[in-house]
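Handout, section 3.2

Students often ask what a structure token actually looks like in practice. Rather than define it abstractly, here is a full record for START-like domain-containing protein. The first block is the sequence as you would receive it.
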Amino acid sequence: MSKKVLYTLEYPVRCSPVILYEFLSSASGLQEWFADKVDDRDGIYTFGWNGTDEKAEVIDKEENKFIRYHWLHAPKDEYFEFRIEKSEVTNQTILVIADFADKKDIKDQSQLWEYQVKDLFHRIGS
């Protein structure tokens, strides 16, 4: 089994960090764009896609700054993270997504994120 590598994607977004964070951290916000169904019980999120459920726990967060999830089935050192940054040059809000994938799968995974982020931006009107 090959070791997965961390990769990051950046997306400029026209939205306040407070509103964006709600879409990245709440079950109702995540259900709008990330999964078909999302439930949060005691810090364990259940994400549903096409009848298949995956569970993740929040392992770190700072309100309106970032939230990091760990898939319960994945190795302990792997996670996916949504980080909200501000461009020092343009003062624009930037959504930074960090995730793990096999090197050969990064392009496909990036395209999947691209599709989901477009849905997110549509939902928030960006």
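Discussion prompt for tutorial groups: The beta strands are 5-13, 37-41, 44-49, 52-62, 66-71, 80-86, 93-101. How would you have guessed this from the sequence alone?
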